[in-house]
Amino acid sequence: MYAILDHIFIYGYDYVYVLLAGNICAIVIFTFRFVRNRNHLLLTLLTLEGLILTVFSLMDLVGANFYDLNILILFFLIFVACEGALGLSLLVTVIRTHGRDHVNSLNSL
Predict the structure, then answer these.
(1) How many Å apart are CA 95 and CA 81, to the nearest integer?
(2) Alpha helices (H) in 37-105, listed in sequence order
């Protein structure tokens, strides 16, 4: 029995390739925003989380359709949670010491 999603086409393309192209475009956009956005530490951390969320959805898409990456995705989520906690603690520390989260004022670190 064939899966229902194996035969769904969007404008002549398979849905997997459309989602793959969308994820790659999102990775390029979030990478550009991460490199370009250097005003506030909070905005930089949110852009990094968006980039990581896009990479997670790309890994989930590839893992569900092409390879079996379940344990790798689990380890990735563990490291993402640790990175998010570390980023928020760094943000709180910077705001307590400097009084603001401007990246330009972090030269003294």
Answers:
(1) 21
(2) 41-65, 70-98
- Which among 95, 103, 105 has a CA at the least distance from the CA of 41? 103
Tell me what the mean pLDDT of segment 10-19 comes to: 66
Q: What is the dihedral of CA 33, 76, 68, 7, to 10 degrees?
A: -30
Q: Percentage of the chain with pLDDT > 90?
A: 9
> What is the pTM (predicted TM-score) of this model?
0.71
With beta carbons less than 8 A apart as the criterion, state whether 50 and 30 touch. Answer: yes
Fold exhibited by the domain 4-108: Helix Hairpins (1.10.287)
